[in-house]
TrEMBL record:
Domain PPM-type phosphatase: 783-1031
Reactions catalysed: O-phospho-L-threonyl-[protein] + H2O = L-threonyl-[protein] + phosphate
Region Disordered, residue ranges: 1041-1112, 1178-1198, 1292-1338
EC number: 3.1.3.16
Protein name: PH domain leucine-rich repeat-containing protein phosphatase 2
Length: 1348
């Protein structure tokens, strides 16, 4: 062990002693670095949020300070160097002067941690290794070695004739060549080079494990290589096959953490394309950048993302280069030697720190494409005027505020200009000089108020979205494509008429009419004018012979003009208008119409499909949701026999004609929700291709005959009046989702449930489990409903967290998690975020602190899954303001990404969240640009995501961060409900429409269903999720809280120290529905589990001491006697004189895991990490005991807390099963039916209350630690620590109490004083001979928490 003051470092295997802990506590700038050996694979062995918590065999913990350098650490560890790995990706050798702990602290501060002590704890958590990790040696990846260099000594024969003999030679496969040494076991002397590009590699069947390598061309050479093992043979064959299949001589060494290229690569003199992107190339060394000119035929070189810092001048000596990419290297200047590259055609310098270019660059006569995006140029460099051959200039993301069109006129060959994201404010034309050569101009995401480009007479494509344009003037001579959405345009002036125009997007502007030239244009095929103020469409527009796609939704149209002739229209979107009818001739004049959306109008009838009985309609998708259609309109759909998708939700249908439905044989998706249907016609069985039937929120009482359909996948009949289900003998294996919630009279037999066992997502009602004393609890203040619907990908990537009773007080938590295209991260967040919030509430009462830390900790817990995948997250927490005893409720909202929360106050929407999208947040766009991220043309960071803040996607740090937006809003009696939704919901449904929708429905579940149904009917093709929380908070609302212990003054902090108590004799304990009063850790639990699951038990954010926030009671809920029961995390016995072991006669075999011992019932289960409450009450009869069912922490929610115990008094026997054990039981095929079906998004349907918990205990896995009756051995680390000054008082308080269970009681450990990480000397023990009902004050120790 070595110490050098603040600059010293200490190494231990896994744990630290008291001296090390004292040293750490002395300064927040001290900490611990987890140092892995080179034998560890760069990735942890398992996936998931806890994969990295397993301690590796060669992990070393090094105590150091933020000033400790790599050189000092290497000297102490006697290693040559240290390597840094970020997000499980590349490995970089650290410079001797770099400071590892300082790097970790900077990383944590960058993602959002602010408190120094919290940063110190997080830095020592081994879970952090999935984001930042240090190695003492460079781990080698077998696949990387195979792709860069293969070598070995094998039997080799040259030529195809038998005259040549076999000889042992050193053989290499590197780059594009096979290299054979002329001397055995040596690489000296002459080397035989065989180019393989375009050649052949074939198996030699006459010899085992033999390959024939042949070069291309008329003078091809051949080598036979005989390998020793099958593994070598397969490895060489696989790699050589890739080389010979190439059409060009290309070597791809990207993302290999290389500092130099393999030396043998220089034998590949035919190499023309070399990709070294995402490495750490150095100048020096045999394979460094200084030696790259040795490639005499090299044409393309990619050195992007190499942290070069300076332009490598040696590259300018490769005179054959035609393409050079040096993007994202932090370069400040370009050397004058760039002028040597006279053959250069493409130069990419994006993502650097350049602000000027050398004059020598103007001499590159052949340069045609120049990339200068995301640099610091204040204007277009003047040297570009001399580049006579340049036709493409990319300068997005710079600082150009003024564009002089005269400069463009002087660039005689320039055709394509990209000036996105520059902050442009003016486009000036000093003279009448025409700009004749520019054909494509991109001005998106700037600050332009007016734009006059009439002097660019050859303009073909213009992008000017998301500016502030009020006036737009263009030349129409050659204009083909115009994109001008999201501006403030009232008109667009184009002269002359753009007869070449084919596509125009004017959506989200202020247009009240369409200009006349739109109708005069002869070739317009696609026109988007959605979200304007149009009151009519010109008749000539609909009669256009070129228009194929017309999007005119979200306007003020009251009628459409009649079609005078046959038109080629294929797509027509008229949703969200005021249409009362459609043109009578619509369907038989627009015979090519395949898509029609007229949702959210006032239609009472639809036009006929034809004028005769024979219909020529080709309509495939028809959306009629949100109109006033009745059953008579359904009869008019018969003529559309090609119909695949039909949405008629929220109309006035009383029935659907059976004979008409049978004619729609090609129907695949049918949505009839929100009508007044009492039945679905039996003729639905004629729709053999039907895979989706959604008919929620009707009056259906008979289950439709759809389960025999061969392609049925999804059936939603929630919120109906079903009473029974008549099932066939077998179900189709294709059915993967069935929603039957909201059918209060539906009773399912066990036979039916068994038949449904193969369904991936089975949603059933959870029977209410209301306890005595809870009738006026949180359920009277709020209740919720939620809905999740998958999109076209048939993969649900949205998860919902909904907990009406959060923790042990009148609080609630709700969340929405959207993974876009991945389902893993939303599931992980759904399962862990509630627990993380519970833990963070113990450490801080400041909303911005505990919410931010909840998101940051959840980000860390994603582990390897969060390296490449991410999700938007929204979390809402309803709670009391702890500062005022008589306060009302407050709502704290935190979010990252694009999930949003909207509160309805006084009937109006009040947005509470912030959308972290590059298109909608100027601050985030500026931050991402400042960090030199590459933003692609679709406004995505590195082409991956449009969100600048997500949980996960850590490999995009520091551009994409997990730090949330936090806002707290006090709730009042004017607050009616809360709406939570993902991006897909609010893209299609406005805030105002969402509020009006919920107001009209009121039932939260039905309202959430309607929101998702509307989004899909409005054209949403992605996953959509919604949560509706109905609020009933008035001036007389209850403000009491479930007690946490003795009275105190601390508003929120660690729970008090509870002690086991007994209920009065003759009064069986009745468990409450709430558990998790305090959590404790098994002495055998690894420190990494402690760090990753429990967090710290002490923080600077709350003072040490035994106090807890006071119990708050209102007049509606007088205080009652409370008893706390705390289990030791080892073995124990639950017994009762009234217990029944469940065996009626001796002929029944005993249950596995349940031991009968007289009147005592012993159940073998694991109860570590558990705590629960017991309330006293009157003696209950055996009948009452049978009615008491299993409950969880979240009786109305979807998620169970891990540190919980589900308690049930069944047949007079008290059973306890750990929540973690329950999660294991749910995975067992024999017990999955007890706990309900697992939802496709990770949710679990609540178990039926009729199931006896003994059935669960039967399936509990056995533990080697013994049964509950085994006497508990006291562990020195699991003792109650009491200050000596209080020991006598405690003994006196404990003396009059009787033990709860016979036998020696287990030792007890207060969670608030337990140090879960560092080794302690044995503490003074307090004999637990007597038990007291009052918790004793305990001295809280300051603990340095980590997961080591």
């Amino acid at each position: 062990m070595k110490r050098n003051g603040s600059r010293g470092c200490v190494t231990r295997k896994t744990r630290f002693g008291s001296r090390e802990r004292d040293w750490l506590k002395g300064d927040a700038q001290r900490g611990c670095v987890c140092l892995y050996g080179g034998t560890v694979d760069p990735q942890p062995p398992a996936s998931g949020p806890q994969a990295s918590s397993t301690l590796q065999a060669d992990l070393r913990l090094v105590l150091c300070s933020t000033t400790t350098t790599v050189e000092e650490l290497c000297a102490q560890r006697e290693v040559e160097g240290l390597y840094l790995q970020l997000h499980g990706d590349l490995l970089r050798r650290l410079d001797p002067s770099e400071r590892p702990l300082h790097m970790v602290y900077d990383y944590l501060a960058a993602i959002g941690y602010q408190d120094p002590l919290r940063v110190q704890r997080e830095a020592a958590n081994s879970d952090l290794s999935c984001m930042i990790r240090f190695y003492s040696e460079c781990p080698m990846n077998a696949d990387q070695q195979e792709r860069t260099l293969l070598t070995g000594v094998f039997s080799v024969r040259k030529g195809k004739t038998q005259l040549h003999k076999w000889a042992e030679r050193q053989v290499l496969l590197c780059g594009t060549c096979l290299i054979v040494a002329s001397v055995k076991d040596s690489l000296t002397g002459k080397m035989h080079i065989l180019p393989l590009v375009g050649g052949k590699v074939e198996e030699v069947k006459r010899r085992q494990h033999c390959l024939m390598f042949s070069s291309a061309g008329p003078q091809a050479q051949t080598y036979f290589v005989n390998f020793d093992t099958l593994a070598d043979y397969q490895r060489w064959h696989r790699q050589a096959s890739k080389v010979v299949s190439q059409t060009i001589s290309l070597v791809d060494l990207s993302c290999y953490s290389l500092e130099e290229v393999p030396e043998y690569l220089f034998y590949s003199q035919d190499l023309t394309h070399l990709n070294l992107r995402h490495n750490f190339m150095s100048l020096q060394g045999p394979g460094g950048l200084l030696n790259l000119p040795r490639f005499s035929q090299l044409k393309s070189l990619n050195l992007s993302h190499n942290r070069l810092g300076v332009f490598p001048e040696s590259v300018c000596e490769i005179l054959t280069l035609t393409e050079l990419n040096l993007s994202c290297n932090g370069m400040n200047t370009v050397p004058a030697q760039i002028g040597n590259l006279q053959s250069l055609q493409t130069l990419s310098l994006d993502g650097n720190q350049l602000s000027f270019l050398p004059e020598e660059l103007g001499g590159l006569a052949q340069l045609s494409s120049l990339g200068l995006s995301f640099n610091n140029f204040p204007h277009i460099p003047g040297v570009l005027d001399r580049l006579s051959g340049m036709d493409r200039l990319a300068m997005a993301g710079n600082r150009v505020e003024t564009l002089e069109l005269g400069i463009l006129a002087r660039m005689s060959h320039l055709k394509n200009i990209d000036l996105r994201l520059n902050g442009l404010r003016w486009v000036k034309s000093e003279a009448l000089e025409a700009v004749k050569q520019v054909t494509q101009l991109d001005l998106r995401d700037n600050h332009l108020a007016t734009l006059d480009l009439s002097s660019i007479c050859s303009l073909e494509t213009l992008h000017c979205q998301r500016n502030q344009l009020r006036a737009l003037t263009l030349s129409g001579f050659t204009l083909r494509t115009l994109h001008a959405s999201s501006n403030r345009l009232t008109t667009v002036n184009i002269y002359p008429v753009p007869n070449q125009l084919t596509q125009m997007d004017l959506s989200r502007n202020l247009l009240e009419y369409l200009p006349d030239w739109v109708c005069d244009s002869r070739k317009v095929e696609v026109l988007d004018v959605t979200h304007n103020f149009l009151s009519e469409l010109p008749a000539r527009l609909l009669s256009s012979l070129s228009l194929r796609k017309l999007l005119a939704g979200n306007n003020r149209l009251q009628r459409l003009p009649d079609l005078l002739d046959h038109v080629p229209l294929e797509v027509l979107d008229l949703q969200h208008n005021k249409l009362g009818e459609l043109p009578e001739s619509l369907f038989y004049k627009a015979l090519n119409l395949k898509y029609l959306n007229v949702s959210a109008n006032a239609l009472e009838i639809i036009p006929p499909s034809s004028q005769s009985e024979e219909s020529l309609s080709t309509l495939q998708e028809l959306y009629l949701t949100g109109n006033k259609l009745n059953e008579n309109c359904a009869a008019l759909l018969v003529g559309h026999q090609n119909l695949r998708v039909l949405h008629m939700a929220y109309n006035q249908l009383l029935s659907f004609p059976a004979s008409k439905l049978s004619k729609l044989e090609l129907l695949e998706e049918l949505n009839l929700s929100g009508n007044k249907l009492k039945t679905i016609p039996s003729t639905v069985s004629s729709c053999k291709r039907l895979h989706t039937l959604i008919a929620h929120s009707n009056h259906i009482s008979v289950f439709p005959e759809i389960l025999n359909l061969p392609e049925i996948k999804l059936v939603d009949l929630s919120c109906n009046e079903l009473t029974e289900i008549l099932l066939p003998d077998s179900l189709m294996a294709t059915l993967h989702e069935l929603d039957l919630t909201g059918n209060s009279s539906l009773l399912l037999e066990h036979k039916t449930l068994n038949l449904f066992s193969h369904i991936t997502t089975l949603k059933l009602d959870q029977k209410p489990a209301m306890m005595a004393g809870d009738s006026l609890g949180s359920s009277t203040l709020w209740n919720h409903g939620y809905s999740e619907m998958s999109g076209q990908r048939n993969k649900l990537c949205v998860s919902v967290l909904a907990v009406d009773r959060f923790g042990d007080s009148v609080e609630a938590a709700y969340g929405v998690f959207d993974g876009d295209r991945n389902e893993e991260v939303p599931r992980l967040l759904q399962c862990t975020m509630g627990d993380v919030l519970s833990e963070e509430l113990l450490h801080s009462s400041v909303d911005s602190v505990y919410m931010s830390n909840t998101f940051l900790t959840s980000h860390r817990k994603l582990g390897m899954a969060g390296q490449k995948l991410g999700a938007s997250a929204l979390l809402c927490y309803i709670h009391h303001e702890p500062s005022e005893l008589g306060s009302y409720f407050s709502l704290t909202v935190a979010n990252v990404g694009s999930c949003q929360a909207v509160l309805c106050r006084d009937g109006q929407p009040l947005p509470l969240s912030k959308v972290f999208s590059l298109e909608q947040s100027t601050e985030e766009m500026d931050r991402v640009k400042l960090s030199k991220a590459i933003i692609t043309e679709d406004n995505k960071v590195s082409g991956v995501t449009c969100c600048s803040r997500l949980l996960g996607c850590s490999y995009l740090s520091p551009w994409v961060l997990p730090k949330p937006w936090v806002r707290t809003e006090p709730l009042c009696s004017q607050d009616d409900f809360l709406i939570l939704g993902n991006r897909a919901l609010f893209e299609r449904v406005s805030y105002q429409e969402a509020v009006c929708t919920v107001q009209a429905v009121r039932d939260p579940r039905a309202a959430a269903k309607k929101l998702c149904t509307l989004a899909q009917s409005y054209g949403c093709r992605d996953n959509v999720g919604a949560v509706v929380v109905s609020l009933h908070i008035g001036e007389d609302s209850c403000t009491c809280e479930t007690p946490h212990g003795n009275t105190g003054t601390e508003p929120r902090g660690p729970p008090p120290t509870p002690l086991p108590v007994t209920a009065p004799p003759g009064e069986p304990a009745t468990p409450s529905s709430s558990s998790g009063i305090a959590s404790e850790f098994n002495s055998e639990t690894s420190a990494s589990e402690v760090g990753s699951e429990a967090g710290s038990t002490a923080s600077d954010e709350h003072p040490s001491g035994p106090t807890a926030r006071p119990e708050r009671r209102c007049s509606l809920h007088p205080a009652a006697t409370l008893f706390l029961f705390q289990r030791q995390p080892s073995c124990a016995t639950f017994s009762s004189n009234q217990s029944d072991n469940g065996l009626d006669s001796d002929d029944e075999a005993p249950l596995e895991g349940v031991i009968s011992n007289g009147s005592k019932l012993e159940v073998e289960v694991d109860i570590h990490c558990c705590a629960f409450q017991i309330r006293s009450g009157p003696a209950a009869s055996p009948k009452d005991h049978n009615l008491d069912k299993t409950r969880s922490d979240y009786p109305n929610g979807k998620m169970r807390r891990q540190n919980s115990v589900v308690v049930s008094a069944t047949n007079g026997c008290l059973l306890a099963v750990c929540g973690r054990e329950i999660s294991d039981l749910k995975k067992s095929p024999s017990t999955c039916s007890l706990f309900g079906k697992k939802l496709s998004n990770g949710s679990v349907v609540a178990p039926e209350d009729s199931h006896n918990l003994i059935e669960v205990a039967v399936e509990a896995p056995k533990k080697k630690s013994g049964y509950f009756t085994a006497p508990a051995q006291q562990d020195p680390e699991d003792q109650l620590v009491v200050p000596p000054s209080l020991e006598q008082d405690v003994r006196e308080q404990l003396r009059g109490q009787s033990p709860m269970v016979p036998g020696p009681p287990p030792p007890f450990t207060p969670p608030s004083i337990r140090d879960p990480v560092w080794d302690h000397p044995p503490a003074p023990m307090l004999p637990q001979r007597d038990l007291a009902p009052n918790p004793i004050p305990a001295l809280q120790q300051e603990v340095y928490d980590t997961a080591l």
